[in-house]
Amino acid sequence: MQNIQNYINGEYSNPIQELWIDNYNPANGEVYSQIPNSQSDDVEAAYTAAKSAFKEWSNTTLEKRSRIMLKISELIEANLDKLAEAESKDNGKPIWLAKAVDIPRASSNFRFFANAITQFASESHESVGQNAINYTLRQPIGIVGCISPWNLPLYLFTWKIAPAIAAGNCVVAKPSEVTPMTAYLLGDICTQAGLPKGVLNIVHGLGGSTGQAIVAHPDIKAISFTGGTVTGAHIAKVAAPMFKKLSLELGGKNPNIIFADCDYDDMLTTTVRSSFANQGQICLCGSRIFVEETIYEKFKADFVERVKNLKVGHPSAADTKVGALVSKPHLEKVMSYIDIAKEEGGNVLCGGNKITVEGYENGYYLEPTVIEVPTDECRVNQEEIFGPVVTIMPFKTEEEVLQMANKVKYGLSSTLWTNNLKRTMRMSNQLHAGIVWVNTWLMRDLRTPFGGVKDSGVGREGGFEALRFFTEPKNVCIKY
Ligand code: NAD
Q1: Please, which residues have CB within 8 angstroms of residue 307's CB and are 6 or more apart in sequence?
Q2: Minimal CA–CA distance to 172: which of 3, 13, 45, 68?
Q3: DSSP character for 102?
Q4: Buried/exposed code over 165-189 (b: 16+ C-beta within 10 A; e: otherwise)
Q5: Which of 256, 257, 255 is nearest to 396 (CA)?
Q6: 63, 117, 197, 448: which could form a disulfide with 166 (CB 3.0–4.6 Å)?
Q7: Is residue 297 among the annotated active site residues?
Q8: DSSP state of 415
């Protein structure tokens, strides 16, 4: 049994009150490690370490900050196998996916912001006729909190930490209690890279105890949060009276809109991926598929055939396309939606059942599931399921599909398949989403703004948007 520890002031330590939580391997349902359930005293210790590091770190040259972050990036790459194995064991995702996407992306996050901070410029405005010049200082906020979810553990954890420290802040960070292992390993990497003690502090534990203590801490002045919409709303309520700066990246129920004039094969291959990558547990997955009625029957047959062939298996098997869901409660939640779909008149075209993988009978495996829904207003089409379950239905006109696509409370991403330029422009303008992908999915350029509208969140991450979030602008006006 491997115990995970907090990383505070550059050292690993047990939680002060010695409270622990079991950590499960979703591939076999067994407890394989214990993690701290940190309380407010642990968060206070992390805060104190961050505070004592802040003066020096915020005055460290950009070149030096950047050099340390590039070293962290290199060390993540050098530990690719170890980190990918840990991620896969914690999360249930196929190990090849962790190796090809999650861990390389964590490395890119540090590399990207190590470079971005050296290019981050602020504005100046000459007040013509008034003999004055204004310039904007972009100062670090101080101590900031970063809280991340379980679906892309190290990827999203570092997506927050990297811009925060690049901008000169010190951080109290909490990964998901469901997938703490790679965040734990990151501590050692930061020490090896020479990150000064206290710049990054990692506290593990439950949302209601550790997370709550970070959000409620009066001197942690900004919170960058990625997770569920209900949690985000709660965080906003706790933070509001303290006027904290908030970035909330929340849930999604993203439309995947397919017109008959698209490149069909490309669309089909990508749609399988955008539906079931990471067991459908990506906030950006296209979980509502709308297909133009002239190709609906053909698409339905081709898609279902492809989905039936997706190999569900142990995350370490090379041919596994769909691994285990992250936890037992999550598996149960996802399966409950399949029952809801049936009650609502949905037609399960394939999947819908729990799978037993030989040798790993207690793992959390579910068949990739496609449900034909009678109306876009049913619950499975409106609520975030966050698993390997997608809905499909036909549409007749652009106006109709636009209306259905927008008629949900979420607005994270949208995918559009068409070769009609005018339609692309019209629809991209009108879709309620922070991101619109046209003839592709999940193609990311880290310079672009990332985030959602409506219940999918507030604020943007990525590129200079993230550096703006993690700095406070100050206008200086000099009369001469
Ligand atoms: P969650 O909201 O349950 O937990 C996210 C994090 O918040 C965890 O670290 C958790 O411990 C913590 N937390 C929980 N309660 C808290 C509280 N009261 N105070 C402070 N912290 C608290 O979400 P999850 O189940 O881990 O992740 C799945 C959700 O994340 C889905 O809704 C998904 O769409 C969303 N997500 C969004 C994005 C995005 O970029 N918009 C990316 C990935 C995941």
Answers
A1: 272, 275, 276, 350, 351, 368, 370
A2: 45
A3: I
A4: bbbbbbbbbbbbbbbbbbbbbbbeb
A5: 257
A6: 117
A7: no
A8: E
Name the architecture of domain 2-250+456-479: 3-Layer(aba) Sandwich (3.40)
Residue 1 is predicted with a pLDDT of: 78
Q: Could you tell me the distance, in angstroms and rounded to a whole number, from the CA of residue 248 to the centre of ligand 1? A: 10
Across 36-75, b (16+ Cβ under 10 Å) vs e yields: bbbbbebbebbbbbbbebbeebbebeeeebbebbbbbbeb
Q: Looking at the whole model, is its pTM more than 0.70?
A: yes
* pLDDT attached to residue 2: 81
**Alpha-carbon span 241 to 218, nearest angstrom:** 10
- pLDDT of 184: 98
Q: What pLDDT, on the 0 to 100 scale, is given for residue 108? A: 98
Query: Which pLDDT belongs to residue 221?
Result: 98
Low-confidence ranges of the chain (pLDDT < 70): none
- Which segments of the chain belong to CATH 3.40.309.10? 255-452
Separation of CA 167 and ligand 1 centre (Å): 24
What is the pLDDT, as a whole number, of residue 101?
98
* CA 374 to each of CA 343, 378, 402: distance values in angstroms, whole numbers, following the listed order: 11, 8, 17
**Burial status of residue 345 (CB atoms within 10 A of its CB: 0-12, 13-18, 19 or more):** exposed
Q: For residue 68, report the distance from its CA to the centre of ligand 1, in Å.
A: 29
Which of the following is catalytic: 170, 283, 285, 378? Answer: 283
Q: Where in the chain is the domain with CATH 3.40.605.10?
A: 2-250+456-479
By CB atoms closer than 10 A (0-12, 13-18, 19+), residue 411 is buried
Return the CATH class of domain 255-452: alpha beta
Q: Report the pLDDT value the prediction gives residue 242, as an integer from 0 to 100.
A: 98
